[in-house]
Structure formats: structure tokens, C-alpha cells
# Entry
Amino acid sequence: MRIVDKDDVPIKLTRNDLLKDNLGHKLIADHVWIDLSSNWFKLPTEIFYGDEITFEASVERYPITRDDLLNKRNEIWENTKLENENLKQSWRNNKFQYRGQLRYAKYEQLQSQIRQNIQLAKKRQKEIPMVDYGLARMEKIKIEKLQPLIEYKGIRRIGYSLDRLNKYKFKYINWISKRTEQYKLLLSSKNQL
# Structure
């Protein structure tokens, strides 16, 4: 997925850690979640993997629970706990060389360092957001380019049916989705030959 302006000129993305497509364009996302609204089914023909469409939509955040992000957050916390435990152990080993006010001052210094480590860990954890983005309120969906379709096991382009959608909503959507997946598998097996 790329973001382009109304003249199909790519919008410059300043982040350097983005994926790139086979033409070297920076990609804004490797996948996108969308609301399946009836606007899709007003298209004149079925779309398949590789077709190009344009649309207008709003970007919305939603909370996620991804193991890879949770693991990164947990790793930050575990490393901080280990570092703080090492500081405490060092204090225990050396505290008897200090007396009176000096011992108290060193203990306060230790506690201050532990608090700073915890604050830094929390800040670093927040830098790994547990949110993702989806497209909502999609409208003005238009087909820009249709790939030549390989006919396979009766899969050829059909017109979407709002009647079927209204009568058999989930069955119809599952059927359409399954056809797309079958076609995607066909393309990948053809490209491997």
C-alpha cells in the first residue's frame, strides 16, 4: 500500500525504517484492515489480488495485542529489573564501608537511580505503541487497474451482488474471500513454475 496524492504522485514519507515495494517506493503498511461496507459491492466487477483501486477513507486507531510488541515491552522491563537488582546487590556488598550520613546519602542515591531506571523503562515501553491503524468510512472506491485474470476452476470475474450480500451476508462474504485466496494461491504457484 502506498499513499499518493490526487495526481498519483507518491507522498514523501520521511521515516527511514519503512518497507519498500519492488519499485523502491516506501510502503506505508504491509497490510491494512478495512471495514467491509456495502460500497465495495457497488463496484462494477469483482477485484482480485493485484488489482489497483483508489478510495477515500478515514484513518482510525484501535488497540492491539501483538506478541512481538508485548515481548519487546517485557524485555525492556526485565532488563531494568535486572539492572536495578544489580545496583541493590552492589549496595549490599559495599554499604558497610560507609558510616552515618554518608551511608544514608549513598542509599538515597541508589533509590534515586532505581527510580530513574524505572521512569526510563516506562518511557521506552510507551515508545512501542500497542495500537494499530485501520481505514474506516471508505467511499468513492474506484477500480484503477485490473490485472489480466487467469481462469482457474471456474474463477473469473463476476459482478458483486448487493442482493446476495443482504440475504446471505456472512456466507456470501466468506465465498468471495475464499475465491480471492484461491486465486492468490494460483498466482503464487504459477509464479513458482
User: Anything to note?
Assistant: The mean pLDDT is 84.
